[in-house]
Amino acid sequence: MVNRQETASLEDALKAKARELGFAAVGIAPAADNPEQAERLHAWLNAGFHGDMGWMQDRADVRQGPQSMWPEARSVIALGMSYAPDVDPLADHEAKISVYAQGRDYHDVVKKALKALARWMVEQRPDVQLKVFVDTAPVMEKPLGEAAGIGWQGKHTNLVSRDHGSWLFLGAIYTTLELAPDAPHRDNCGSCRACQDACPTDAFPEPYRLDARRCISYLTIEHKGPIPNEFREAIGTRIYGCDDCLAVCPWNKFAQTAARHAKLAPREDLIAPDLAALLALDDAAFRAKFSGSPIKRVGRNRFVRNCLIAAGNSANAALVPQVKTLVEDADLVVAEAAEWALARLTASP
Asked: Which residues does residue 76 pair with via DSSP β-bridges, in sequence order?
């Protein structure tokens, strides 16, 4: 029989330890699969909204709930680490990188803290079994975060917190421990549709549903081929990701940079990067510049492709010489993007 006094003490200590390790939000949810969540996932996949992200389809059966992945799981600890920005994410720059990618790779920072929390749990309960996850496994962190009460899944499909706005990196620990769940968070979006209206590419066919194929974050990060012409102008000068739907959320007014994990502070050279310098990157220079950054995973060619789209939208004729050198690039996608950018920059007014 579960000793509720003992587990209640453990739950309180667990949450205190999580905050000590840098997590701004922590909650507990049951590990049982949610049939409604599974149904929404399969409907989204069947609509083709995942685009080229075949890994979403390949492991959909496991992704539909914690116990589909690990039948022995009894509780989920959902955690959020703040990356609230110091500056306006919507400010105009010659090249714009999403707030989440301006600092160290969050996978490394969050995973290290999750592992430390897991070690602490084993010290408290040597019989415990657990698994830790941060965005690299078939885990639906956002619905789990809502079920655990740390926020709700907003109309832009990301988690929103009353205390931290849209700026939380999410992680999860699955455990065999029977922990008392927190109350699920209720939806506080109301009639607001700021995130829907802010999307430059109309990526939301309806509230709470994202068509990734139209999303700038998907197009600049996940999509490997040429960026479709219909979205190029709307991308503007965004070279890695897009924050528009997150940044306009009214709940961000409560987010405090004081809650941000120290290791997630932005790099000065990535807040408003030099587009000409980025266009000049070869593979070795790209790897060196973005060592320890989430940007490194897209590779030089995809990143320079994005920079060329930004150059074409910049109206900065000073970039023409740099763009011309890329028309002959060995990568055909880069070369095509360079031709497009060159035509835009040299077109008669």
From this structure: 29, 174
